[in-house]
Amino acid sequence: MNSKRFDKETFKEAVKDNVKTLYRKKIEEASQQQIFQAVSYAVKEQIIDDWLATQEAYYQKKEAKMVYYMSMEFLMGRALGNNLINLTAYTEVKEALDEMGLDLNAIEDQEPDPALGNGGLGRLAACFLDSLATLNYPAYGCGIRYRYGMFKQRIKDGYQVEAPDNWLKEGYPFELRRPEYAKEVRFGGSVRFEKDPETGRDKFVQEGYESVRAVPYDMPIVGYGNHVVNTLRIWDAEAITDFQLDSFDRGDYHKAVEQENLAKNIVEVLYPNDNHYAGKELRLKQQYFFISASLQALLAKFKREHGNDLSKLPDKVVIQMNDTHPTIAVPELMHLLIDEEYLSWEDAWEITSKTCAYTNHTIMAEALEKWPIDLFSKLLPRIYQIIQEIDRRFVEKVRAKYPGNDEKLKKMAILWDGQVRMANMAIISGFSVNGVAQLHTEILKNQELKDFYEMMPEKFNNKTNGITQRRFLAHGNPLLADWITARIGDGWITDLSQIARLKPLVNDEQARREFMQIKHKNKIRLAKYIKEHNGIEVDPHSIFDVQVKRLHEYKRQLLNILHVMYLYNQIKEHPEMSFYPRTFIFGAKAAAGYQRAKETIKLINSVAEVINNDRSINGKIKVVFIEDYRVSNAEMIFAAADVSEQISTASKEASGTGNMKFMLNGAPTLGTMDGANVEIVEEVGMDNAFIFGMRSEEVIRYENHGGYNPIDIYFSDWELKRVIDQLMDGTYAHGDHNMYKNLYNSLLNTQCTPRADMYFILKDFRPYAEAQKRVEEAYRDEHRWSRMAMMNTACCGKFTSDRTIEEYVRDIWKLHKVEVTVEE
Ligand code: 26Q
Questions:
Q1: Whether the complex's predicted ipTM surpasses the cut of 0.90
Q2: How far is Cα 279 from Cα 195, in angstroms, rounded to an integer?
Q3: Beta-carbon contacts of residue 640 (< 8 Å; ≥ 6 apart)
Q4: Which of the residues bear the PTM N6-(pyridoxal phosphate)lysine (predicted)?
Q5: What residue spans in the chain does CATH classification 3.40.50.2000 cover?
Q6: d(CA 528, CA 628)
Q7: Predicted model pTM
């Protein structure tokens, strides 16, 4: 730790002073929340110097190119602990607080979990920011300061109930309001062209619009031990004119109210849909709002630093679009360059298409963003015109290349069937299109985006996802982190490839024992959490079998719980059967309007209730549904897991990142050959994972040619049939026969569109049950299991987001590292 700047005594004084000036209290009188605030401000003071130094270093190094990571979601998780880790000050601060009679863990628990994201895509953005700062790369994250983030999940009577996440209630100490950089964003109205009287140029004018003031809040992103502090800039919306009397006088009362409401609504709440598009106007407003503000700020900064020659933009700036949600950046940049900077279409296009790059995170059809043209053109008339022109020019090109082939247009045009297809726009306009795991990228190239790939193969590339070991090992699993450091040094914190040095230790009995003892301690920590939150006693000696992720049919939590029901039937029928005790742990939020997902949560909780209270099975199975799964409890869950459930229908999970967090923490994967599981197995070896089920080619073959009928399986496997029938016979519904009707129908009812059992749960059931048997067998063999667990940790080097970021830099962004030096 930087000795002088983080002097213990100075830090203690700072905390005391903060309690005094913020609350007019002595430490002993302050609440835990007030102490959290005081400690956070003391930490922020330390960060600010590095923040200034970093921005100064970027400014001095004018050749420094900057990446703008545009994302509707940043699932940051708590900042205090993470900042301390990256400042390499965690231990000292913990000690300092100890000396004051304060407990850092309890203080960390006071921080709300900033949850400005849904799941994988949002958390990936947060990991990327951590890696960019740690690797000394100039970067901005740009997003929205939602007033309410991802909802809080409560379980009442087994059902999910959503509660608002008022994360700003107590004030958030790690943000900085920057009103001096506010920008205006306009919606609606109409477009008129006129001749500029001075230049004689055709000029576009937007009239009769509504507008809001976008005000940025900056959050520091601390790199690990390198004095770099980058910025996450999230935009708040305010009414342009405050509710003034004169506008009332002018008869603009309604307009004033409207603008106030528009501003309030835009940033009110994060849409809690994961992998599902809903064509809501407000969502489009959110997208345009933060993109327009971010691009205006970006251009202003560029001109301040590099002057007015915008042709240099692609040398200094690259815009990475996190899925299609921010792809309105393409026409907005065109608009700003043409209408505000007076560039020609050709020059603006040259710049835009060299600056923007797009990442695809899904092949799920229901996740593709397609906006109805009438909605779109009313809200964003000028942007729509620009899209029309981009489309017109592209269609011309396609016609020239494939004369008379309308199939090509049907697949590739931006405007089709009364809709604006955002993915197509991003692919056509950007210089890079990447998938997020090898398999996913291959499916994009050969299946989903085949026509695009054939026309412009040079744009396509793969960037397998990664995760930050700073949060998910150093912070989340301190026991294992310290043990690894004691064994191989602390180089792994910034160079995860070094973790491979653990490999020889899998043959060292002492090392294996220590590794498993740490796992056991982490299981005790989780068991305590479960006791406190669920009132359920779980045995830390049982196998902790964990599936935590968003609830979605393709992720197949239903397959998991059906298998639990099947095991329970077996144990009831054959009490003498040998069975290794298991704790099945679930955690998942369902999108608020997603009925089948919500029914699955209810089913899991009902199965838990029945099984956990059945004394006749001697606690052989426990089922736990962890309420409000989020970043902060995730860290503890990964650390305690024995088995990592990654059981999506092959081809559906673009990558997965939870799989990597389990692996890092020594939990073997029980999974399908999907997403990054494929690469995990490549690294750790088939012997150290439990792979089962259909391969992606088989799934895609059925999808393209039909021929799957779940009924055949249902009637040929009586044990599976019994389990499915139990959905309808009231076993898990206090006699209610209708509670799980929708789930039952989703599996068997041939009326279902486009077919029953869309996600091949019946087809994969037996292979899954067999894989589960292999898990049990392996776990019984302590020697073998400890080797497997350790091998998973030792082989996870590839899955750091540091590696992912270096690949983005090398192939797409072309950034240069900037050193930041600070006087100590
Ligand atoms: C779109 C339109 C309107 C409202 C909401 C949305 C929306 C929001 C979130 C659509 C999709 C998402 C989130 C997608 C997501 O998290 N995808 C995951 O991305 C991870 C990181 O690449 C992958 O590891 C996962 O496989 C992928 O499912």
A1: yes
A2: 36
A3: 519, 522, 523, 525, 526, 544, 546
A4: 661
A5: 8-465+808-813, 469-692+761-799
A6: 16
A7: 0.98
